[in-house]
Amino acid sequence: MAAVGSMYWCPQGLMPCGVLPGGAMPGGVLPGSVMPSGGMPSGVFPSGAMPGGVMHRCVMVPVVPPWKAPAGPVVSEAMPTSSPAPIPAPATVATSKKPCQSRASPLKVLRREAEESGEPQDKVMAKHAVEFSHDREGCLWIQQALDKASDDGDRLAIMDALRGHTWDVMRCPNANHVLQKVIVTVRPCDCQFVIDDVLQRGPEAPGRLARHKYAYRGLQRMLEHLQPCQVAPIVDLLVADGMALAMHRHGTFVMQHIFEYGSEQQQRRVIEHFASGPMPMVRNNDACMVLNAALADGDDRCREDLARAILANEGAVADMAHTRRGHVAVLTLLEVLSEPLLGEAFRQLSAQEVSLWKSRFGRSVIKAVRDQFGCTALASSAGA
């Protein structure tokens, strides 16, 4: 290792040891130098070399104090007469990618084609509805055209262009908004092609769409605006997978819509499916939103059957009361229940009262119970 006071010859010129570029320390590796093969010396870091490293392409030159320097120029034998050969740049790897080309906006394409063909812009837009729907700017123009259409004829022209492309359109981050707008603005009988396109994909298609981060919105619009008899085949397939969908981050919203917009028969089928076996969903945050929707929007029979199924799992109500979304379902449950189920709910909650007081959401449940049913509601149920 070189001593402080020595001079080093490097591509930057003469540098005294300890004043190396890039913050290198004495005996370190100059930043940017190429290390010999065989690995890096101990203590060498890319941001600055540490003591004990290796100086590559550097030659030590003795330092001559100014008062001892000869009159003429000093040339050291150790000093190279020319700068070190430059380090070759890494060879560029040839890629097959073409240079990025600017793409004209859909509006410009629409106007240009309308001028060239002499057709109205609405007809040109309908002709390219699928292409424009997948574009961020184009999907906005399609939605505006659907809103501003003077009659159903213009909307049907756009809808016909989407026929057969439902699967890709529903899963596109842009085009899914166009399909939602079609379902909202067009008559339900004219949207039958959407149902048919989904069912053609097989019995697992509705479940896959319900789990998709964009496609589940289209299923929500179907449940909201189409006739129950139209969506019945899709709902039947969703119910068969209802337990897993209720616990999915996107599927939970579709299952909630079945209770909000579905028929009583469809709601009862979902409750029967939930109550047919163990209910792991009572301890799942996303599924608790479905339970809350069933208790809030279901009929009296659905509420009672679901409440019995929940209370049959000892401790499930208390577990729900500890969670953010579960405690909301518990509050709804207590509002719609009557004796003797209400007393059973109080008993299970009182058994975990100490634990509930330690939870932010559990405290909300206890306070709501005492405000609604009296201060001694839990205590009396515990004594019973």
Automatic annotation (TrEMBL):
<dbReference type="InterPro" id="IPR033133">
    <property type="entry name" value="PUM-HD"/>
</dbReference>
<feature type="domain" description="PUM-HD">
    <location>
        <begin position="15"/>
        <end position="373"/>
    </location>
</feature>
<dbReference type="GO" id="GO:0010608">
    <property type="term" value="P:post-transcriptional regulation of gene expression"/>
</dbReference>
<dbReference type="InterPro" id="IPR001313">
    <property type="entry name" value="Pumilio_RNA-bd_rpt"/>
</dbReference>
<protein>
    <recommendedName>
        <fullName>PUM-HD domain-containing protein</fullName>
    </recommendedName>
</protein>
<feature type="repeat" description="Pumilio">
    <location>
        <begin position="236"/>
        <end position="272"/>
    </location>
</feature>
<dbReference type="GO" id="GO:0003729">
    <property type="term" value="F:mRNA binding"/>
</dbReference>
<dbReference type="GO" id="GO:0005737">
    <property type="term" value="C:cytoplasm"/>
</dbReference>
<dbReference type="InterPro" id="IPR011989">
    <property type="entry name" value="ARM-like"/>
</dbReference>
<keyword id="KW-0677">Repeat</keyword>
<dbReference type="Pfam" id="PF00806">
    <property type="entry name" value="PUF"/>
</dbReference>
<dbReference type="InterPro" id="IPR016024">
    <property type="entry name" value="ARM-type_fold"/>
</dbReference>
